[in-house]
Sequence to fold (502 residues):
Amino acid sequence: MQHNGSSNKVPKTWLGYRRPDGQVGGRNFLLMLSGTLYANCVCERVSDMTFNTIPVVHPLGRCQVMPDLRLTVRTLIGMGKNPNCGAVIVVDHHKETGCEAEEIAHEIAKTGKPVAAINIRGSGGVIEATAQALRTALDFHRKISGQRREEVPVSDLVFGMNCGTSDTTSGISSNKAVGIVCDLVIDQGGRSILAETTEMLGGEEVLVARAATAAVGEKIWFITKRMEKRALESGEDIRGSQPTGDNILGGLSSIEEKSLGAIQKSGTKPIVDVVEFAEGIGKASGLYIMDTPGHGGESITGIAAAGSQVLTFSTGGGHTINHPVMTTIRLTGNRISYEKMKDTVEVDVSDIFDGTPIEEAGIRLYNEVIDTASGKLTKCEILKENNAMAIHRIGISI
Amino acid sequence: MRKEVFVINPKDNVATLVSEDGTKGRRVEADVNGKSQAFELKDAIPFGHKFAISPIAKGTQVIKYGYSIGTATENIQPGQHVHIHNIESNRGRGDLVQQKEKTA
Fold:
């Protein structure tokens, strides 16, 4: 237990909304969940018209090959099941085979939270669907807004980790600070999720050495090889896509270098399991890996679908990324980037370069995670900068 | 105290310069395996970029975090800028697979 000394000094509880299925939310909003792109506007309209309602919209839900559609549906169900949502209204358009609002609502309702499904054609068009959703929203908000936060242990936290617009400061400052938070959460019985399989290429040996069992090690090799195969099949050098243009400007020269910096987020604990994109994780405490691409929005959407309440997004160049469902905290170790991007970056750990011990910066970040999970608003929440809903695709539109 | 040169692992042959003053010809101090070592920057080094701390021969591995981050495409001298102009990634090289298929 590397951080025993510091664990004694950090908060061991946070304030959350206990859900009927036992999960604990850090927020208590109504989710307007679009089942198909043609229902997006109804979801956005109802969100605009009501207090504390978040829309989740996307361009999918139709004309997808089945494995891809199933992944979309699993992701949408995961959005609704995330404990940050107090209640959910799912809207679809007419008849989306394999992606119907009723089916999605049925799965989400297993959590015990209030859920409704609205079909635009069935309601008699968008005006009637909007009115129906609005009345339901009124009812749901009256139901859920009376719930109070209660003190809950850190073991009820699913801590998400992601990085993006990385530079060479990431691997030696911000990602290291995230790794300390990751360890602290697990020390107290919580769960953490590392993702971004592309950013494991070149760092596999480091991760496999930390696998709890040989089978978990095999899974790490499996997902990294599968991801590299995708890159090879493109017939091109992935440099430019990975590392990205902003990574290269920031001094990262290859995917291997980016990966070795990115995996610093994962701290020091054993890796207990590897899961597919948007798949739920086990109940056991520990560090999990989710197979996601390096695309920040897709990656954090996958983590949100697994039920993570709060995620830290470490960045070199600064960022605006924010998930509508999972509270997202941005941090950087690059002082210049903090100055340029402080509208949307909550935590500056660049003082690590002035001699602040990384441990101290990590505890500062941990406190921000606890405060934010307990209700402190992020900059992007205040600014409604909800840009990062992106569903990973494994097939083409047909 | 402000630290501006980072050598992460004892096996590394590159250092990261976290400074806005990477002027060519500047002398910087780096902690290499517990010993302070001076380097003259042979190129202008942008904030956060890398320079070599030992000679890296063409075709050999560039090491950071104790692992390979790519292959040197030319001989690199201590103090020289190490980036995409003189190192190539070894991973995800779909272009190399395609070249191999064409020549096969």
User: Anything to note?
Assistant: Chain A has a mean pLDDT of 96. The first strand of chain A starts at residue 13 and ends at 18. The first helix of chain A runs from residue 4 to 7.
